[in-house]
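SUBJECT: protein chain
CONTENTS: sequence, structure tokens:
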Amino acid sequence: MSPISFAPDTGVWLLSTPRTSYALRIDETGAPCHVAWGPRLTPAEAEELAVPPAPEASSFEGRPTVGEELPVDGGTRYGPPSLQVRFADGARAFEWQPTGHEVDEGELTLSFRDRRYPLRVALHYRVREDTDVIERWTVVRNDGDEPVTLLRADSAAWTLPPERDYRLSHVTGQWSAESQLRRDRLPYGETVLTSRRGITSHHANPWLMLDAGEATEEHGRVWSAALAWSGSWRVTVQRTPDGRAGFTGGPGRDGTTVPLAPGEEFATPPFAGLCTDGGFGAASRAWHAYVLAHVLPHADEFAPVLYNSWEATGFDVDEVGQKALAERAAALGVELYVVDDGWFGARRSDRAGLGDWTPASDRFPDGLGPLVRAVHGLGMRFGLWVEPEMVNPDSDLYREHPDWVLHFPGRPRSELRNQLVLNFARREVADWAHGWLTRLVGDHGIDFLKWDMNRAFSEAGWPDREDGTDRLGPAYVRNLYGVLDRLRADHPALRIETCSGGGGRVDLGILARTDQAWASDNTDAADRMGIQQGYGQIYPARTMGAWVTDVPNQLTGRTVPLRFRFHVAMAGALGIGGDLTRWSEEELREGADLVATYKKVRHLVQHGRLDRLSPPAEDSVCVVQYTAADASETLLLAYRRVSRHGAPRLPVRPRGLTPGGRYRDARTGAVHHSTVLGEYGLDVDLPAGDWSSTTVHLVRED
């Protein structure tokens, strides 16, 4: 059956994925309306669901506030609009008039225009044969001779079927406490998730999950969506008094608009949606598979074990010290050595030097070349920290181009971390950034960039461009994407990590142009367990940078055994960030052994199926499982923070094993039947005491 079908008699469009269906129709007024989103339907079954809307109950109700594919501001609509328009004569609203459609393999485009004004809207839908994720976006075009203002332009609106109750899952947080998972009953009215910071933000992330309040990790239907956008964004979730729920989302924030000049169009980023059975675990695994197959540029590769110099040296970076650290890192089995902040210009603290991207001559008298060659000679790739979007007022760049930063004339220029934000919306700024980056990478043989962004926007003005303040947000993100795209085209072997003071810019848009993400500046293993649980709801372990650093932890002051720190970091893309010159010989030996252990199982962590067998908790065992696609082997990572006498010792029941199979423990040699493991469980042998952890690698005997 074709993934996209149309029933002319009822006007129903049916989009089919491997396990789900999405149906919509154009109603009698010309508006695109939702029909169904859930388990697979035949065209006839979808038509049966396309019932006309009930008449308005009173003169105070208007059209239902949930149930349109892109609710507009106009007529008798009173819910949160996805599209708000102001025309040159002051008129508002949009009236749907269908003008045609186009089907191109797995993509459907429905075209409309306003009944009076020359404004066109195209709704785009894309389905793929290997995923249940449906990508949706909107393109708005001004075909007239006068300007049009988009007060709001969302990517898509999603409608859920009626349920007795609804629960909202999302993440909240702050710097160094990102991705805190929340699952709360959805209140009636409107709930807004947003970032007004110019970046994706530490405080929220543009994804959500909804269920009927009954889903668990293993059971229940879950609807979810994620926005592929790396700037300010907003998602509005609505629960109506008559028992419906839906949500709309897209780029931008309240208080800004999108100007459309004659002939100009605005394309929103994809807002991808997914319906799954099998609980939150199945939803996460479906998103992980989608990101690996259709988002990441090089998902088939293994993320290398990296070392980062920041916690060892801070700003005290020089050739001699870095070479000494590199030798110790190589002895641990590190594959990628990354020099962090402090290698360039007058950078001796965070107060000066940002923007002057040339190696500091007093610290690298012959440039970076000798260090890069030394690192390569040790068998490691070489990486470098950069922050291209920022400038210190105390820098040659700022003294030459004070107009290049976000600002309003006559207003103070607020500094955060002693720096200002360069206006990447300006083409000359983006071209400047691309120019020095491509020279830096090409001239020095750089293999990896840690691309950081250490503050939110403020005074987000673009005074020398008409409507600059409104145009800034979308243009900034698109030029950022353009620099990354051009840089990767220049240097196909280059790999990039996205970072914004940790997890401040992680989303499907930036992951389409980078290879991994720094999930948080908080490297405390205990805190990381919760951060990693929230991060992994949508984003796969292959993308999640996780470091082993020194204790007491510089942020929390907590002391955790080296083994525990390694085992927590093994749940993602393993990195090391401690001061190796201060590690004892015993710690270096143990670290090397743990790095070698990770390399033996990272194919499971980075490309396998994730099962969260038990969540992080203070006094119980937390277990995550990673399994090969063919179930030939599986890895359990088990952690216990606090040991309490008399606490129940519950068996761990691995999932996804081959029925009737036998699995050998790679460490002990013990053989287990998969039925016993899955139904009766495995007694994970955790060492006694607090901060206890272990790994169990089970290999199927064929």
